[in-house]
Amino acid sequence: MENSGEREALLLTPNDIKRGSWNAFPFFIGTVVGLQLAGGWLSNLIVYLIDEFNINRIDAAQISSIVSGTATLIPVAAAVVADSFLGCFSVIFISFIIYLLGLILLLLTATLDNLRPNRCENGSDSCVPPSSFQYAVVYVSLALTTMGLGGTCYTITTMGASQFSSPKDRNRYFNWYYFTAYVSSLVTSTGIVYIEDNLSWAWGFSICLAANMVGLAIFLIGSRYYYFVKPQGSPFMGFARVIVASVRKRKIPISSQITDYYYGDHVGDNALLEAPTLCLRSLNRAALKTEGGIQENGTISKQWKLCTVQQVEDLKTLIQILPLWSTAILLATPIGIQMSLSVLQALTMDRQMVENVRIPAATMLVFTFIFTALSLGLFDHIIWPVFKKVTWIDRDLTPLQRIGIGHVFNVASMAVSAVVESKRRAIAWYQEPESGANVGSMSVFWLVPQLALVGIAEAFHYPGQISLYYQEFPNGLKSMATAMISLIIGMAFYLSGAVIEIVRSVTDWLPDDINNGRLENVYWVLVVLGVFNFGYYALCSWIYKYKNNVHDHMEEVLE
């Protein structure tokens, strides 16, 4: 990320001093609220597909996982387009329009009877599946809404952060951003989901559409207060040049002399330069100067044959952090599986609170948000400061330590899920000895412990990962730190779908009626996977060496 001086030179003019900073802040927060409320369609998608489209429960969970995964993969492509070609503002505006079209089409599926199959009666074995046309319409609507959601949410985060030149102000912005996002998600997972379940899907989707339109209006109204950072080109092209140049010069001996390498503009004093590191030393050939590689004015004559030492070292950093990044995918995969299966569990449990008031199944996921928010506040501001005073420890947890604690809580969550599911299924099958009548179902609040544990886990490993990537990534990739998290989540959702499909094909644990299956076995498999992944993570973190001073960075982040 560029330093503050470079940024001000790029963006400030004497007559334009009111743009950016906290002047733009209210408009970004208002836009975020609109986007989060508009996501009410995704929070309850599984139930909508089951109730209105007669789709098999496990298939509905699979579709929801694919949609969620795609929505978190698209931000990576959006970030590349924004940085390289269009800029954040244009990408957000185009994504908003796509989002609106998708929500309109989704609303039509809830209001026009010919866009849905006839609704199944309770206990009926002759449910009519959707026609090819009905499938096509709902899939197109989901594709458009997913593209719009992915193109707006994470891009608005990056554009909002670019309004601030001070790291302290950016950290305050991120705190307010995530607080607003969590509060809005709570409203979405309770209020809008309740309306969809108890009033009508049309009303619920209409609120999502209206929230999206309000968010777009707020975003456009605030345009006069924004800094507009011009696209600077993607650093990934530089990485590609490093690979190509090192391959083309693979027969040239690697030198240990600093003067044999190209440093770009930093050629004034060789004493201030460092030789390329020995790690992945074959890539050093990309920065070796060769005859005819540099023009008389000091610029590169053939960019695909010579790169700077900095470009080489940046690529090495990314390669070295990839093993740690891969452990995060296997960490998030069980969470994706648990989200889908917890909704299916809730559908079979007693959700009655008071007379005529039932908790929507999808609303149970709100406990994850609640415990994530509580854990973030309590640990950073109460628990850890007290622990430091008692033990005389004067340093905060490093990013790798926070991620490791998240691994432990995540495994514990899956183990609790398995135990609770065993009890739920036993109660569902228990009958009175004389009458043979079923005695009832288990309270849905038994799901709270497993959701609470996964929320605590997220409070540790997600902030730890963001801190790690932002600290360790090359300067040209600082804005990709949040996109890397979205990429992790997206791949995890796809992998969770693959795991469920494998389980369905080789076992009988996941029938349409989970009371007839062995869902607890799926959770125990996730426990084994989590333990294996934690061991893999421990090995990777032990091998990994920080590129920057981790404690100085943590003090800046927590300031």
Architecture overview:
The chain is an all-alpha fold. The protein contains 17 helices and 2 strands. The protein has a two-stranded antiparallel sheet with strand order 1-2. The two termini are 19 Å apart. Mean pLDDT is 79; it is low at 1-17, 431-439 and 550-559.
Contiguous uncertain segments of 5+ residues: 1-17, 431-439, 550-559
CATH-defined architecture of the largest domain: Up-down Bundle
What is the strand content? under 5%
Radius of gyration: 26 Å
> If helices are DSSP runs of H or I spanning 4 or more residues, what is the number of helices?
17
Instruction: State the helicity in percent bands.
Output: 55-70%
Summarize the structure.
By secondary structure, the protein is an all-alpha fold.
Using brief descriptors, characterize the structure shown.
single chain, 559 residues, mainly alpha, Growth Hormone, Chain: A, 3 domains, two-stranded antiparallel ribbon, 17 helices, 2 strands, globular, disordered N terminus
Layout of secondary structure:
Blueprint: H1 4-11, H2 21-38, H3 40-43, H4 45-53, H5 57-86, H6 88-111, H7 132-161, H8 167-198, H9 201-221, H10 236-248, H11 309-347, E1 352-354, E2 357-358, H12 366-391, H13 399-429, H14 448-472, H15 481-506, H16 519-543, H17 550-557
Antiparallel strand pairs: 1-2
Helix pairs in contact: 2-7, 2-8, 2-9, 4-5, 5-6, 5-7, 5-11, 5-15, 6-7, 6-9, 8-9, 8-12, 11-13, 11-15, 11-16, 12-14, 13-14, 13-16, 14-15
